[in-house]
Design goal:
Layout (H helix, E strand, L loop, with lengths): L20 H73 L1 H4 L5 H5 L17
């Protein structure tokens, strides 16, 4: 049988030397780095969960505020309709609105615009 190159020939494969101090030090660093990364990922997932919980609570609070504001809008709209109805009823009966407006001199006759507001002599020029 011919000798093939993929047989287990001891000359073609070199056995790895026993682990050195450098290799074990590198392995320890890898283990420490993986542990540190695992802890960081765990903290990150916890922060992400907390943020989602906070956003959920904020969302619920905003939904409640929105509902309260919608109720207030509805109530104010009903109040506005009521007052518009009252005003409409009043306009039909109001004698002031049905009579012609008074002349401007009648409106301003009771007001004197030239009176000094401060009567103390200290404030007069």
């Amino acid at each position: 049988m011919p000798h093939s190159s993929d047989s287990s020939d001891s000359s073609s494969f070199s056995q790895s030397p026993p682990p050195s101090k450098q290799d074990s030090s590198d392995d320890m660093r890898k283990v420490q780095r993986r542990e540190k990364n695992r802890i960081a990922a765990q903290k990150s997932r916890l922060r992400q969960t907390q943020k989602a919980d906070t956003l959920h609570l904020e969302s619920e609070d905003l939904e409640r505020q929105n509902a309260a504001l919608r109720r207030e809008i509805k109530q104010l709209t009903e109040e506005m309709k009521h007052f518009a109805s009252v005003l409409s009823s009043h306009e039909q009966l109001c004698s002031i609105l049905t009579s012609p407006p008074p002349p401007p001199e009648v409106l301003y006759a009771t007001h004197s615009f030239h009176q000094p507001h401060i009567s103390s002599s200290r404030f007069q020029h």
